[in-house]
Amino acid sequence: MTNREIAAVFEQIADLLEFQGANPFRVRSYRNGARKIADLSEPLSAFATGDTRALTDIDGVGKAQAEKIEELLATGRLEMLDDLLAEVPSSVLAILRVPGLGPKKAAMLHNELGINSLKDLRAACQNRQVRDLKGFGAKTEVTILRGLAIAEQAERRSRWVEAEAVVQRLLQHMSSVADIQQMEMAGSYRRGCETVGDLDLLVEANDVDAVMDRLGCLDGVAEVIARGDTKMSVRLDSGMQIDLRVVPGKSFGAALQYFTGSKGHNVVVRGLAKQRGLKVNEWGVFRVGEDGSEEYLAGRTEEEVYASLSLPWFSPKLREAREEFAWAAEGALPELVQLDDIRGDLHMHTTATDGKATLEEMIEASIAAGREYIAITDHSKRVSMANGLDTERLRLQWAEIDRLRGQYENIKVLKGIECDILERGGMDLPDDVLAEADWVIASVHYGQNQPLEQITERILGALENPNVDILAHPTGRLINRREPYAVDMEQVFAAAVEHGKLLELNANPARLDLHDIHCAAAKRLGIPIVISTDAHSTGGMEVMRHGVQQAQRGGLTATDVANTQPWESFRKLLRHALE
Ligand code: DGT
Ligand code: CA
Ligand code: CA
Ligand code: ZN
Asked: What is the structure's pLDDT at 50?
């Protein structure tokens, strides 16, 4: 299990304990443990097996939690969690995930109104029963109703990164079947979609039973939904479904193409085949004779399938029936940006605000990650919860960066700030201070529920400010947790063009903000995109790959992404002359 998965288990335990009204100290210790684990830069297994360091050496991890981590690492399960889950039905658990409802409020709804599911909750809000509970009101009801839509989606679809954790375990588990010749994930997971409904696993093998038996004994399989000659579907405890298909080698490419989708992409492929008197399905490409006979033409590889239709191979990231066929017709499929192209990371935090690593640690981790230039961008003072910087503390940090510049010669460190756009409009720090910064990020963190005109005005104001370089996480959404705020993106794009600003693609897998469609729009308008990790720890730099994947789905090339440029050309985008 990965650190992230183990941290998620601890979070879940904390939620469940809180829901049950457990001792608040106990709840808090699990939450702290989860945070510590998520922030670790090393895998937990390194502590569990290492002879010199124990899990209890990790700050915030006590003896009881260390035992739970060991149990998870050894078995992939935790008896305590299984017990808790048996006590709280999963339909009730879903209530905990409604934005704006913590475990405490969820428990009240459950205990006082008998609410047992999202459906019950929706009915109770619509019947105006919720507003009468202590600590709730008519406004809470509206908030809950808004949050319900997103919780209902989260019940059905996982974030890509959560699906990835399951996929890694699944592929590892299946790899012991000797008869497997080839194995690939297909579906929305392979396309890198931001959320994944179910997982589609494709296997080439002769011994179908061996493959299916093995899938059946994956840890966490709750139910075998169906098992046939070539297809099998299982459901995991988490609710996630896995569809398996076992095909012969001559059909592997055709099946991979078919089950990768998207459905819309495949509709176009089949249409193009038909025009040529061909038929494409999951078994191959066939020439259809006048007597209805079918002659197999291709199917071993995806390249072969597409080539038989005079099409180039499409990156799965582009298979959404958007512009890919028009590009192919012009022979101009974009050469998508790759993780290796990234040279800079221009959004990160340190212990000066809510980061977990010091300035030096972040610089050293950036060097280790191969970055040639970075910007240190802690929060400004409005973000008081994160101990945001005022002018004085910011200048102190810059003095520190000046000192460190001499020490780290193989990386450029920009003096930056993530400056809040205030609720009433305007920037959180004075213009003359922002003017001194090498790199100014403008962000909306407060007043996210304002009406469209107001939020758009605030953002346009920031983009008009000559000292602002870039707008961070432009729509504020959190996948499966929070809707984007109401903002007129057309106007934001127009202002970015007019004032020569950049837009961030925040790589945090919970954000991925800009959306892929917005990435494509920015590219069309020639607005440079910066993919940033927004790292709050050294481990947080790892998320760059998610941002790159999202950029690929938007059709972005390295040229479209400003932080792929070598320092010598990137520095020309800055307001200050820096060597
Ligand atoms: P998901 O699971 O909702 O995140 O999205 P997908 O794209 O993984 O969809 P899924 O799992 O239902 O099916 C996987 C792929 O298989 C899909 O992208 C295209 C192909 N496929 C499945 N069912 C059909 C169908 O009825 N017609 C066509 N043309 N293709 C299908
Ligand atoms: Ca799927
Ligand atoms: Ca499926
Ligand atoms: Zn940030």
From this structure: 60
Superfamily grouping for domain 339-573 = Metal-dependent hydrolases (3.20.20.140)
Question: Which ligand neighbours the alpha carbon of 243 most closely?
Answer: 3
Ligand 4 geometric centre to CA of 418 (Å)? 6
> Which residue among 162, 188, 189, 232 is best mutated to probe the pocket of ligand 1, counting the most ligand atoms within 8 A of its Cβ?
188
Q: Where are the beta strands (DSSP E) in 355-436?
A: 373-376, 412-420
Q: What is the dihedral of CA 289, 293, 297, 303, to 10 degrees?
A: 90
- Within 10 A of 255 (CB to CB), how many other CB atoms are there? 27
| Structure token pair of residue 138 | 């008519």
Among the CATH numbers 3.30.470.20, 3.90.400.10, 3.40.50.920, 3.30.210.10, which is that of 258-329? 3.30.210.10
Place of tokens 């033409």: 297
- pLDDT tens-digit readout, 248-305: 999 999 999 999 999 999 999 999 999 999 999 999 999 999 898 999 999 999 999 9
Assigned superfamily of 3-156? DNA polymerase beta, N-terminal domain-like (1.10.150.110)
